[in-house]
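cron nightly-structures :: item 1 of 1
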Amino acid sequence: MVRVIKDPEERKNDILTAAMELFKEKGYGKTAVSDIVKAAGIAQGTFYIYYKNKEDVFISVIENTREKIIQQLIDVQKRNDLNAVEKMNLIIKHEFDINRTKDDLILQLHLEKNSGIHLQFIINTIHKLVPIYTSVIEQGVKEGLFDIKYPKEAAEYMLVATKFLFDPGIFSTNLEELQIKAKAVEDISERILGSSKNSLKSPNIMHLLKGEI
């Protein structure tokens, strides 16, 4: 048999694609590295060139599902036609979807048995979002819309709080409780950033009132 030589990125993508299909079909718990290797058409040793273990590839698969939203946030961050408050409101609207997506893989992530991977996903997401939030907060300071001395730390504080508070895999709350929490986050975020009252409109409220959660 002729050995097919592929570019490393192409080979890595083959593994991710095979793993994604298997995780959706069989579930994370019932999928073994040997299954992924067989589906990707590679040797066992090749898998470990790219990933440490099954958990590592699952995290990569999960992270890929959020990249479209992350890119949307970056696109908003780079827009020149919006001020910082407008950007922040739009970013929060898109970012909220990361936690509330109905994707099968995200739902598996919320299972108690996958709590370790779930925590790593949240941490990785925060690391990706901090530079985006920091940039917008710094813009707001320059525009006189925000009054904050520590933009990066403010971004970290806001993201750590909201990523845990609104993650349905961590806190299971009813509609009424979510509405109250969302309104409270609006007020707290305005105080942290030193922005004017009612300037930050959390999209959580809109989602909740439409019954989309």
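cron nightly-structures :: done
Confidence is low (pLDDT under 50) at residues 204-213.
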